[in-house]
C-alpha cells in the first residue's frame, strides 16, 4: 500500500510533489487543472476561481492564468521535458450560492484552462467540465487516478437557481416602506436607474405595506424602522413568520453596533443600512451604487420562514 500525504486544496492553492499525494478539493464554478509526468510518475493540481489576473497588479493562485502557468513551472522544475506531461481538467459548473464565483465565470474558467493547455501543447486525457452541479475531486498523484463525485443540489440551491433564472428575464419587483414621502421618492429615483429593478409600490406604514404586498407580490422590500402605527422591527417579525420576503432595512437608528441593527439581523433582515451612509439628500449616485447591488443580491435569496417562538423575544 502506498503511503501518501493527504492534501486538501482551497481556492487559490497549488500542490506539486514528487512524493505520493492524495489531493482533494471541492469545485463549483472554479476549475482545477491536474498535470502528471508520465515518465517519473508524479503530479500536481491547482484550484482557481477567476480566469485572468486583473490589471490592477494583483496576482495569485485564485486566477487561472497565474495558477496554470505556476503549476506548469513547478512541474518543469522537477523535469524540464514538457512532452512528458499530460493534463486533466475539472469543474466550471454553473452553480449558485457559496460554490459560485459569479455569473459567466464558470465558462471563462473553462476556456482559460483549455486555451493555456493548448498553447503549451499539453494533451488533455480527461475532462469533466460544465453542467449544473458542483464536484468533489479526489486525485492520486503517483498513478494519475482520479475520482469525481457530483454534488447533489440541496432544496435551497434548486430554489436559488430558479430565482436566478427568473431574474434573467424579469425585473426585480421592489416595495419601498418609509413614513417620509421624500425618502420614498429619493429611494425610488435611485432605483429607477437600474434596468433590472421595478418599484411596484410605496407605503407610508406597515398597514399600507401589507395591502401592497398582497397586491403587488414584491421580490424585495426596503423597510424603515421608525414609523407610525407599527415600527419596522415588529413588521419584520410578521413578515418572517407569515410572508418571508428579503428585506433591506434603511433607517436612521440602524448604525453599526446599535441594538436595533442587531435585532433586525437576528430576526432575518437580508441587509441593514444606516440612512446617513446613503447620503440620501445630496448624492443620488451614491444611493444607487449602494442600494442597487444589494437589492439584486437580495432578490436571489430564499428566506427561511421563522416560527414565532424563534423571534418573539428579539
Give the SSE layout.
Blueprint: E1 5-8, E2 14-17, E3 21-27, E4 31-37, E5 42-46, H1 64-78, E6 85-91, H2 105-119, E7 123-129, E8 134-140, E9 145-151, H3 155-169, E10 172-177, H4 181-191, E11 197-203, H5 206-216, E12 220-223, H6 232-242, E13 247-251, H7 259-267, E14 271-274, H8 275-278, H9 284-299, H10 308-311
Parallel strand pairs: 1-3, 6-7, 10-11, 10-12, 12-13, 13-14
Antiparallel strand pairs: 2-5, 3-8, 4-5, 4-6, 8-9
Helix pairs in contact: 1-2, 4-9, 6-7
Features:
10 helices; 5-stranded parallel β-sheet; 314 residues; 26% strand; Rossmann fold; alpha/beta; 35% helix
Question: Quick summary of this structure?
Answer:
The chain has helices at residues 64-78, 105-119, 155-169, 181-191, 206-216, 232-242, 259-267, 275-278, 284-299, 308-311, and strands at 5-8, 14-17, 21-27, 31-37, 42-46, 85-91, 123-129, 134-140, 145-151, 172-177, 197-203, 220-223, 247-251, 271-274. With 314 residues, it is an alpha/beta fold.
Shape estimate: elongated
The SSE order reads: EEEEEHEHEEEHEHEHEHEHEHHH
Strand content: 25-35%
Structural class, from helix and strand content? alpha/beta
Task: Kindly report how far apart the N and C termini lie.
Answer: 57 Å
Q: How would you characterize the largest beta sheet?
A: 5 strands, mixed
Task: Please estimate the helix content.
Answer: 25-40%
Name the strands of the widest sheet in spatial order: 2-5-4-6-7
Taking all Cα atoms into account, the compactness measure Rg is: 25 Å
Number of helices: 10
CATH architecture of the largest domain: 3-Layer(aba) Sandwich
Low-confidence stretches: none
User: What is the CATH level 1 assignment of the largest domain?
Assistant: Alpha Beta
Tell me the name of the CATH homologous superfamily of the largest domain. Response regulator
Total number of domains: 2
Total strand segments: 14
The chain-level mean pLDDT equals 92
Q: What is the CATH topology classification name of the largest domain?
A: Rossmann fold
Amino acid at each position: 500500500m502506498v503511503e501518501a500525504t493527504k492534501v486538501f486544496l482551497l481556492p487559490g492553492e497549488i500542490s506539486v510533489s514528487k512524493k505520493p499525494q492524495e489531493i482533494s478539493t471541492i469545485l463549483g464554478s472554479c476549475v482545477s487543472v491536474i498535470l502528471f509526468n508520465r515518465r517519473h510518475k508524479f503530479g500536481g493540481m491547482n484550484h482557481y476561481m477567476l480566469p485572468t489576473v486583473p490589471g490592477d497588479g494583483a496576482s495569485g493562485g485564485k486566477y487561472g492564468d497565474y495558477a496554470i502557468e505556476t503549476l506548469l513551472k513547478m512541474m518543469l522544475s522537477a523535469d524540464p521535458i514538457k512532452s512528458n506531461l499530460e493534463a486533466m481538467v475539472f469543474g466550471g459548473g454553473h452553480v449558485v450560492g457559496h460554490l459560485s464565483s459569479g455569473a459567466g465565470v464558470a465558462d471563462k474558467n473553462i476556456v482559460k484552462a483549455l486555451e493555456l493547455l493548448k498553447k503549451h501543447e499539453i494533451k488533455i486525457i480527461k475532462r469533466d467540465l460544465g453542467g449544473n452541479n458542483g464536484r468533489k475531486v479526489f486525485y492520486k498523484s503517483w498513478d494519475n487516478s482520479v475520482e469525481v463525485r457530483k454534488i447533489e443540489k440541496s432544496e435551497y440551491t434548486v430554489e436559488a437557481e430558479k430565482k436566478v433564472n427568473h431574474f434573467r428575464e424579469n425585473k426585480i419587483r421592489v416595495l419601498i416602506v418609509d413614513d417620509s414621502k421624500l425618502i420614498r421618492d429619493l429611494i425610488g429615483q435611485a432605483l429607477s436607474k437600474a434596468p433590472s429593478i421595478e418599484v411596484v409600490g410605496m407605503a407610508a406604514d406597515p398597514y399600507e405595506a401589507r395591502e401592497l404586498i398582497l397586491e403587488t407580490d414584491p421580490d424585495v422590500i426596503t423597510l424603515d424602522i421608525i414609523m407610525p402605527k407599527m415600527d419596522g422591527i415588529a413588521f419584520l417579525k410578521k413578515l418572517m413568520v407569515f410572508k418571508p420576503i428579503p428585506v433591506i432595512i434603511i433607517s436612521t437608528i440602524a448604525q453599526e453596533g446599535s441594538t436595533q441593527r442587531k435585532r433586525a439581523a437576528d430576526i432575518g433582515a437580508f441587509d441593514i443600512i444606516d440612512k446617513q451612509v446613503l447620503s440620501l439628500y445630496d448624492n443620488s449616485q451614491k444611493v444607487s451604487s449602494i442600494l442597487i447591488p444589494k437589492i439584486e443580491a437580495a432578490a436571489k435569496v430564499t428566506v427561511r420562514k421563522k416560527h414565532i417562538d424563534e423571534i418573539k423575544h428579539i
